[in-house]
């Protein structure tokens, strides 16, 4: 039996929450299973529309900003970790295990074991140290730290070239180089180049403040935009004139040349592309200098560019390249 | 927007990437929030709960072995997280509010309820213009019958009639879809 007008009103008032189910409504409901079903269907529909209405109050696009950022951070941390593992190539598997434990801050590991991460020639790696410092290692570079890096001591040993984004902390972050020069910072961004074949260790400061200390006790304080140079044979520290953005060009695969000798360029290319370059005759290396920027992505493209800029030619045999006079 | 045709078609595998995850999120986030809200009655907590469920799903995607439908998994995860929230809230406030038992919410009912929600959504879209307007004002804007009557410059009786028409229409529509 279809409800009469009186019952209709009762049903609507009940559903809209403007009145409790009236006695008449209850009576009508109990009159037949059909009536009971009608009322319970309406109640179901009403609850479902309530749900639909609530759904419209939640905005997934807005919420994704937060969730998407969180999972990207998660993914980046994993990728960095994976890249670092690739950089291990040849290192013992046990060391990889120690490293993974450290990254995730597990207790019960030997805090005295130094952990070393290194890149082969031809590869770069982005790593995040346990204290949150982000390090981009250029080719043929290596960084070691004790596994308790995050709790109080922030000392690392380093060789090669890297760009550091040091996590802010009251504890100084100290980089020890093989030749004895020390670099001390609180929270900052800098590039450090210590390749053994270059007699000078170069530090380029982008943000913050760093202090360089030589083994003989001299020191040099760098302000943003300044460059410091350490002479490995005389142990002298000095400011250097240069262009900071050129020093970090390698982060974007750019090579800036400023009256750079072919000799220095070849050792850079050897590291970056994992090749051996032979200069015939050797004095080509000191005779030829370049100024400009190389943005080529492959070694052959770079060599082609160099043959345009100077009177040289090249031959490639596997990973060996012979550069000779034209 | 229907439930069946908009179900996430892609199987949830270990290779789930950022983009498909974003799609999954957009598809189910409002629904899961509304569901968490049903239990918690707290909009902010509901969003936190659902976001956390998604983040956990992402972090565990390589290890999780999800049998069956991903939406069922998400719905249950939100249910449990919402109940946990109520429990911690009531112990924090030292009140003895009644918290539904985990098993009192049947998982099958849950899914059926969600399907009904989808059909209702489809049927609302099909309502005749005038009834639909009144119905939306009552249901989605939370206006009282008197307020709707004033806004539309008509009587309460007319409003009651329109709501009644909508209900009748929805019931018929849902019966056709075998949803009720």
Automatic annotation (TrEMBL), chain A:
Report the PANTHER family cross-referenced here: PERIPLASMIC SIGNAL SENSOR AND SIGMA FACTOR ACTIVATOR FECR-RELATED, PROTEIN FECR
Q: What are the GO MF terms of this UniProt record?
A: sigma factor antagonist activity
- The annotated regions of Polar residues compositional bias extend over 17-33
* Residues covered by region (Disordered): 13-36
In terms of superkingdom, the source organism counts as Bacteria
Task: Say if the entry is tagged with keyword Membrane.
Answer: yes
Q: What name is this protein filed under?
A: FecR domain-containing protein
Q: Which residues form the Protein FecR C-terminal domain?
A: 254-323
Q: Which UniProt keywords apply?
A: Membrane, Transmembrane, Transmembrane helix
List, for all copies, the residue spans of the domain called FecR protein. Answer: 116-211
**Membrane-crossing residue ranges in chain numbering:** 84-104
UniProtKB/TrEMBL annotation, chain B:
Q: What is this protein called?
A: RNA polymerase sigma-70 factor
GO terms in the biological process aspect are: DNA-templated transcription initiation
Output the Gene Ontology terms for molecular function. DNA binding; sigma factor activity
Q: Which SUPFAM superfamilies match?
A: Sigma2 domain of RNA polymerase sigma factors, Sigma3 and sigma4 domains of RNA polymerase sigma factors
Q: Per the database record, which ranges form the RNA polymerase sigma-70 region domain?
A: 24-90
Looking at the record, the residues that make up the RNA polymerase sigma factor 70 region 4 type domain are 120-163
Q: Which NCBIfam families match?
A: Sig70_bacteroi1 (TIGR02985), sigma70-ECF (TIGR02937)
Q: Does the keyword Transcription regulation apply?
A: yes
- Say which family it is in: Belongs to the sigma-70 factor family. ECF subfamily.
InterPro entries assigned to the protein according to its UniProt record, in alphabetical order: RNA_pol_sigma-70-like, RNA_pol_sigma-70_dom, RNA_pol_sigma70_bacteroid, RNA_pol_sigma70_r2, RNA_pol_sigma70_r4_t2, RNA_pol_sigma_r2, RNA_pol_sigma_r3/r4-like, WH-like_DNA-bd_sf
